[in-house]
Amino acid sequence: MKHSKCIGLLLMMLVFTSMITAQVQFEAKASKTTLGVNERLRIDFEMNEDGDNFIPPNFNGFTVVGGPNQSVSHSWMNGVRSFNKTYSYFLQPNSQGTFTISQAEIEVEGVVYKTSPVKITVTKAIDIPKDPNNPDYIANNKIHVTANLSKSKPYLNEAITVEYRLYVAPRTSVSNWREVDNPEFNGFWSQNIDTKSREVFKGIYNGEEYRYVILRRAVLYPQKTGELKIEPLSLDVGIDVPTGQYDFFGRPLSRQVRKTISTGTQIVDVKALPLEGKPDNFTGAVGDFTFKTTTDKTSLDANESFNLNIEVTGNGNLKLFELPGINLPSSLEVYEPERGEKVNTYSSGMQGKISDIYTIVPQFKGKYPLPSINFSYFDPKTETYKTLSSQEIIIDVINGPLATENTVVEENATPKSKDNQKEFLDIKTETAFTSTEQTHLYKSTGFWNALLLPLIAIPLALIIRRKREDYLADVSGNKSRKASRLSRKYLGAAKRNLGDKVPFYLALEKALHNYLKAKLRIETSEMSKEKIVAILEERDVTKESISQFISILESCEQARYSPITTVTMQQDYDKAAETISSIDKEIN
């Protein structure tokens, strides 16, 4: 009897579990299963329970021109909850034939659900009815979004511009639009150009007159050779379509429909810089530059400092290469340079100047020639390398000790940190004398210290013990303090690894994560960008500081897949230190 009851209970649990499982629905719905090669298809992946870890199919035979777009809806009717979550894609067929859109996956409460495969038949191009009241006709023939590249085959690190335009035919009305799929510039250094003013221009599209507005503009510097993809920009456009009806005054009435249009994927074929004629001192500068070295003084005394300024001015990838270094004898004490940068980014690329300013201190009297320095760059207009040389500068040290025969003069002295100026400040040059006169023991300081020390030590030991117990009991605080120490440790490790990309960005990322652990007391597993932004906003951190922090995290992620110069690493390190300091001051 008991055995049959157990079996019945087990069956009821299985039935209940199957009922719960059966409630989850996950389906793929195509807007059409047969279409022409010149048409587009929308496919939605819908679920009635909130799921995680969505994995789309590979869409073989199609190009994704829009998506994924995500929408979520909740509703309550007669006390019953209704939920719907949808991932939408817009597809352009690549050729005729029959294709299968494979299964998509989603995870709901630890259980993986899959959609059924969807078969799509693509026929030859069809004639789209030229109905001026048909929204499909209007979207396909009267409204276009384009991505215009200034150059499709640039050299590595040569600037190109991509400009996105929305074209609208005459007598066609667009009421509004919004971006649903932003372009990605993987493999490029990119900078957006401000296009806030929506000025309307007149232009030609496919031989016909159109009006157009510039949606966005970006300058790109390719960071690797070969074919690089620029992902599409997709727009959700509101189109005013005539209804065929008229109002009381005889004016035509229209209704608004929404369509998604896209630029499609753009391909940039990046050429490698030529090996022939490449100078040994070439560090990656591409553009058109001038080069000079200057000093703030040429006559001074020994142990007096002067500045040597190495400067490059012009148009090109100014933020993406290193300036040439200097080789001076050790009798000239040289300190690490300070970077100067005045660079603006326009549609044609970066323009301005960068400089390294060295502080130099001569040790002895005499005349010191600062040798000529060479700077090489690649000019994409002439497709040749060019080398510029600075003038030799003579430094006259008027007063000071003379270098003796025993003075060792080393070439190629390494620039040192300015902190080294303090290395001899702790050496004492005066002798302090003390009296040897005998004193009585009970009058001595040692006697009274030995007498009073136990009386002071006992309560002090009790206080220390209590403090230690409180410290050990504060688990959360200890984690925070440990994370703070690790943050400083990894920030120091990043500084030591400047120039070595992988360990540098790994240490910098760990420093940022441990800083968040220390300040916000959240674990690494919880550190999504959305949660970091939400918590920092709750703590009244400014949007600018939050944006800076997230951009540094993104730099750490992107650096693994693209080449990075030491200059960029230094900038990222400085930005990280500055942002951490800013958040420290702002956080509540």
Write a structural description.
- The chain folds into four domains: 21-123, Immunoglobulin-like, CATH 2.60.40.740; 135-270, Immunoglobulin-like; 287-421, Immunoglobulin-like, CATH 2.60.40; 475-586, Nucleotidyltransferases  domain 2 (Four Helix Bundle (Hemerythrin (Met), subunit A)).
- 24% of the residues are buried.
- It is extended and about 105 Å long.
- The strands form nine sheets. Strands 11, 12, 14, 15 and 16 form a five-stranded antiparallel sheet that branches. Strands 21, 23, 24, 25 and 26 form a five-stranded antiparallel sheet that branches. A four-stranded antiparallel sheet has the order 1-3-6-5, with no helix packed on it.
- The chain starts with a helix and ends with a helix.
- Mean pLDDT is 79; it is low at 15-22, 406-411 and 420-431.
- The longest helix is centred in the last third of the chain and has 29 residues, at 445-473.
- It has 588 residues and is an alpha+beta fold.
- Helices cover 25% and strands 38% of the residues.
- The chain has helices at residues 2-22, 135-141, 445-473, 475-496, 501-520, 529-538, 543-558, 566-586, and strands at residues 26-30, 34-36, 41-47, 52-55, 62-77, 80-93, 97-101, 105-108, 111-114, 118-123, 143-149, 160-168, 173-181, 188-193, 201-205, 208-222, 226-230, 234-246, 252-262, 266-270, 287-295, 299-300, 306-316, 332-334, 338-346, 349-362, 366-370, 374-379, 384-389, 393-397.
- It comes from Aurantibacter aestuarii.
- Pfam families: BatD (PF13584).
- This is BatD protein.
